[in-house]
Structure formats: structure tokens, C-alpha cells
Amino acid sequence: MVAQPWKRPELSDQPDLKKLNDELHDLRLDAGLPSARTIRDRVGKDAQDYWIVNHQAVLDTFQKPDLPPWGRLEAIVSALAEVARRNDVDGEVDRFKSLWKQVVRETVMQASVHPPADTAADCDGDAADLFEDLWKWSQDDKETSGQAAEGPPASAETPADADQATAQFNYAEESLKGLILNAAQALWHDKDALRVFLGVVRRSEGFVKMADAAEERRPANATFYGVKSREFEVDYSPARSELVTLHRVLDQHRLKQKWSFTDLEEQTGVSADAWIRWYTHDELPEREALVAFSHMARLTPEDHVLLLGLWDAARDASEVQIRSAALPSSISFDEAWTMRDPAASRLWALAGVGGDGMTAYGPDLARGTAPAFVVAGSARSGRSTALVNIARSLLAAGTRLVLATPRPSPLRELADRDGVMACFVEDNIGHKLDEVLSEASTEEPVAIVMDDAEILSECDAWRLLKNLLQHGFDEGTALVLGGDEGKLRGGYRWLSEAKKAHRGLLLSPQNPHAGDWIGIKTGDSIIGSPTAPGRGWLHLGDGRLLAVTVPH
């Protein structure tokens, strides 16, 4: 099929909107006249795997005589500018944004030619009252439009009158949207003020009605009036990944029932404003609201269990982050050592302090699925400090140690301590390590504490280390290894055996698969945060991720 230009809307009475539309068609021409689906694919999908702009929305942007939402226009312009190989894509987006703002001003002026007398608002009045006045204004125009459309064709001019009334309503509604957008953009860099403004708007009854109206027109990709918005971005929730999944499943059932937000209020008894807030703010809905939703939507037992299971996961992820924020910024080893269980075995190692009661936590290397513990973290995350703490705690409990540090490490400072049998600083450790470990027994255990384990992945002692990880419980040996999460690889000769312990400590994890090393799946809520030395996530094989502070 040969690419062709699209039909342009009749905009002779709106010169600014016509200029914007003409520039958009010219940009598509420069990009090679891509189809609507090609543009949709170029823009891509969001975090919920929905198209950011569906192909019908693309066509509407080019062919309808309405001002498109800025978020949609921005995505389309950016995609076309890249295809057209414009030198300054950001500059092209800024140029269209200036054109878009000019259309907003034009729309507001045209819509305010005959405003109702009661729309004048006191500057000191409540913002929600002002929004209600604006909404009523648009509804009055809508009713006028309906009356004009329904009246008998008394003359040949009646259709034109109806078109004019409809246009007046479009102006009124678009001006209301434009006012909200402009205010939000003015507050863009002040997130707290932006949240306050949006909270005021969303508390108004008119906003719910607008959300429902927008939902009816765009059920597949709701804009800021209903669900999501690129213009109104706020900080992600700490349980971002879990909440996205919960909202996606909930929305699938809501769209299947064809329920608007007002319908949700009528069906569940929970206010439409609350439902909208949970969507737009990435907040965790109340559990009772989901139970009511499940009952009224007549979900199957499997779907009901899934929905509440997702809610539990999102709540747990959020609480983990809250507990992490409540941790002390620092704690000494001596103070943390007093928090341990006095009845702990000789192979219990201090990994960190956390929990509601500020308790010392760590693995018992004499128990579990493998005699190992992994400490993974990037540079400057506090990995070596964590290994030093573990080594000190094992020495304090009477366990003999072997240190392995192929690179300079703070562990080397413990080489002269009583109980340290050897300290290897080279890759070739096989023969000497075999001799040292031969002295181990279940009554007198020996633990290896290793830093930069990825360097020793192919060392000459790989068979010995693999045997230790498989039979260490019977031989009285154990291994604590630390490494860079980005460099550790499970395919190495012996390192993959360490994963079978299903426990470890992650320090400021950045890699989505970092949890594989400690036997637990890590969600987006703990991945990618700025490096915070001494803050970690501990898993002891029980399926629970615990936020801890590493002593120093």
C-alpha cells in the first residue's frame, strides 16, 4: 500500500490550531508518511504493557478539529522528529509545545466570549469551587448544544447553529482541560505543590464527571482525567512493581465490567475520588475496597485469591521500604554484637541490624541447604565492611577463619588476629587451602571468608570449593563469599553451587537479577536506588526480605 497524506480537518475559524495541525502534517511528510500503527509502535508501550498512544488516537490527533492532549502530542512529535532525522528533537518538541500553548490561549479566549455570569470567581475563593464553576459552565454549554441539536430544523441555518453550539461546548471543555494542564505545568518542578493542586481538583465532583466522560471516549488509554498521565508525573511508590501488577489486574476486571469511576462508587460504596486517587497516585487501595469490588464483579475464587494476593505483595513491599527508612544511619559492631541471640551457634555470623525491635540478624552456617552465604554489592556499597563484620563475629564465637582477598581488601587487616589460619592474597590457593581445611571438623569448624569472589571463579581450588559447598556440613567447613553483583556469574565452575544456599545480603542492588544470588525475587521497589553504603536487604532462606543496617 502506497503511503498517502491524511485528510486535514477544517480549521479556518481557528488559525492557531490550524497552524499546529499543518505543522504536524508537514512533520509526518518529512518522516515518510508513516501509518498510524507505525507511529504507535514508534512511541511504544508503558510500564503496564499498554500502548502509550493507540493508533486511533494518532489518527484523531491529525484529523479531528480538536486540540490533542499535550502528552499525546509530545509523544507523536518526538517519534516523528526522530524518524525525520531532525537535528534537534528536543527543540522540535519545544516548538510544538509553544504552538500548543498558543492554541490553548486561543481556545480559552473563544470559549469565554459568552461565559455565564456566575463563573466569575473570587481570587481568594477555594480552588475546588472555581473548578465546579468551570465544570458547570461547560455543562451549561453542553446542554445548549443538546437543545440545539434536538430542536426541529426550522430553517436551513439550524444545522450550522447546532455545529456552532457543539463547537462552543468543545471550546469550554478544552479550555477547562487547558487550565488544568497549564496550572500543572507551572507547578512541574514543585512536586509537593503539584500534589496539592491535583488533590484539590480531584476532590471536586466535576472532576469525577470529567473522568467518566474521558473514560467513555478513551477506555483503552485513559488520560490524566481518569487514570494515568505523563504530564502529572509524581515520585514512584516504593512498591512500584507490585502496585503496577495489582492495578493492571484490577483494571482488566473493571474494563470487562465497563464500569466508570462513578459506577465503582455505586457498586462498592467506596468514593469515586478514592478510586481515582489510587490510580493516579500509585497508591495501595484499601483491602476492603478490593473485597467489595470482587464481590460486586462476581470474580471467580481464583481471581479473588489472585487480587488479594497481589494486594498482600504490594503491602509487604511498601512496609519493607518503610522499615528500611526507619533504620539507624549507622551502628557500631560492638553495639550490634550485644543484640545477637546468646544461644547462637559458633557458625552464626552477624550480617546486619534491623526489624521492629532492632535485632541482630545473620546466617547460621551450620544449617540450611548449603554451608554458604553470599554478600553482593557494587563498588562503595559497603560489601567489604559487611565481610569484615561477618569475619569478626565468627572469630568472636570461636570459629577459625581462612581469608581470601585476591585484591586489596579491609579483610587483610584481620590477618594477624587469633583464629585466622591463613590469608591468601593471590589466585593460586589450591594446595595450601587443602592443607588448612584438612584441620576442620564439626567440633572445630573452619570458615572461609572471601572478597572479590568473581576473580577466584576459575582458580586452581575450584574443585575443593565445589566440594566444600556440597559436603561442608559433614566436614565442618563453610564459605562466606562477597562479590560485585554485576560481575558474579552463576555459570562458573563452583560459584553456582553457592546459590543453593538461598541466602545472602544485597547492598544497594542495581541489577534486577541480583536476588538470584540470595534465593529470592527482588521487585523494582528495591532495585536502582542510589547507593547507600551500609544499607542492605537480607534473606535468610525463609522467603522474607529484611532491611538491615550493616555495622561498621
Keywords for this structure?
single chain; 552 residues; alpha/beta; Rossmann fold; 3 domains; 19 helices; 48% helix; elongated
In total, the number of strands is 10
N→C terminal distance: 68 Å
User: Which structural category do the helix and sheet elements fall into?
Assistant: alpha/beta
Number of helices: 19
Helices and strands, in order, run as HHHHHHHHHHHHHHHEEEHEEHEHEHEEE
The largest sheet has its strands arranged as: 2-1-10-9-8-3-7-6-4-5
CATH fold group of the largest domain = Rossmann fold
CATH class of the largest domain: Alpha Beta
CATH homologous superfamily name of the largest domain? P-loop containing nucleotide triphosphate hydrolases
User: Which percent range fits the helix content?
Assistant: 40-55%
Largest sheet features: 10 strands, mixed
Give structural notes.
The protein folds into 3 domains: 15-111, no CATH class; 235-325; 333-549, 3-Layer(aba) Sandwich (Rossmann fold). 48% of the residues lie in helices and 9% in strands. It is built from 19 helices and 10 strands. Helix 1 (15-30) runs antiparallel to helix 5 and helix 4 runs antiparallel to helix 5. It is elongated.
